[in-house]
């Protein structure tokens, strides 16, 4: 027998009240119930980073968190941070440096990169690699992604490349 619970949360600035199956993951709730399909379902074990979202300002794996755990929380998806313009410079740098190819990992990679840049305004290339290491990319080889993140960090700090 399926058990359900009520959740009240804010998703991308909008108050949401829904009845969800108690075992439904956050990423499935966002995709299936709310139509926010930017976060992807990859490994379903929290390893690949495709399901990355922010909950109360912290990057989390949406496949490892239940929607019910988000009662009262503030959830931000790639759609939300894209709409606010918060990551516009990262998106432009990813495009300019061909740091995205198939795009499957890109939403999680962008949220993860933004988290790093919020904490460390001009991280080293090694720090960038370390921070994004939990996000798998099968297309780019990561060099272009590191280049894009580094370029944005320097630009935000007023440095020239």
Which residue ranges are poorly predicted, with pLDDT under 50 across at least 5 consecutive positions? none
CATH class category name of the largest domain: Alpha Beta
Fill in the CATH topology of the largest domain.
Ubiquitin-like (UB roll)
The string of secondary-structure elements, in order, is EEHEEEHHHHH
The major pleated sheet works out as:
5 strands, mixed
Gap between N and C termini, in Å?
59 Å
Spatial arrangement of strands, main beta sheet: 2-1-5-3-4
| Rounded Rg | 16 Å
* Proportion of residues in β-strands: 15-25%
Q: Number of helix segments?
A: 6
Instruction: State the helicity in percent bands.
Output: 25-40%
The CATH homologous superfamily of the largest domain is called Beta-grasp domain
Summarize this structure as a short list of keywords or feature phrases:
5 strands; 2 domains; 161 residues; elongated; 5-stranded mixed sheet; alpha+beta; DNA polymerase, domain 1; 6 helices; Ubiquitin-like (UB roll); single chain
Topology (elements, then pairings):
Blueprint: E1 4-11, E2 14-21, H1 26-33, E3 52-55, E4 58-61, E5 74-76, H2 78-84, H3 88-96, H4 106-119, H5 125-132, H6 143-156
Parallel strand pairs: 1-5
Antiparallel strand pairs: 1-2, 3-4, 3-5
Helix pairs in contact: 3-6
Word description of this protein:
There is one protein chain. The N and C termini lie far apart (59 Å). The mean pLDDT is 95. The chain has 161 residues and is α+β, with helices and mostly antiparallel strands. It has helices spanning 26-33, 78-84, 88-96, 106-119, 125-132, 143-156; strands spanning 4-11, 14-21, 52-55, 58-61, 74-76. It folds into two domains: 4-81, Roll (Ubiquitin-like (UB roll)), CATH 3.10.20; 87-156, [2Fe-2S]-binding domain (DNA polymerase, domain 1), CATH 1.10.150. It has a five-stranded mixed beta sheet.
């Amino acid at each position: 027998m399926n058990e359900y619970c009520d959740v009240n949360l804010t998703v991308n600035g909008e108050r949401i009240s829904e009845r969800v199956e108690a075992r439904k993951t956050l990423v499935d709730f966002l995709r299936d119930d709310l139509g926010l399909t930017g976060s992807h379902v990859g490994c379903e074990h929290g390893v690949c980073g495709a399901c990355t979202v922010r909950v109360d300002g912290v990057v989390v794996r949406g496949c490892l968190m239940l929607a019910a755990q988000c009662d009262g929380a503030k959830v931000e998806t790639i759609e939300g941070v894209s709409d606010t313009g918060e990551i516009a410079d990262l998106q432009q740098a990813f495009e300019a440096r061909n740091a995205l190819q198939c795009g499957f990992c890109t939403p999680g990679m962008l949220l993860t990169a933004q988290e790093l840049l919020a904490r460390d305004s001009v991280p080293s290339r090694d720090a960038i690699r370390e921070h994004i290491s939990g996000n798998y990319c099968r297309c780019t080889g990561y060099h272009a992604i590191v280049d894009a993140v580094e370029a944005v960090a320097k630009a935000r700090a007023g440095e020239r490349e």
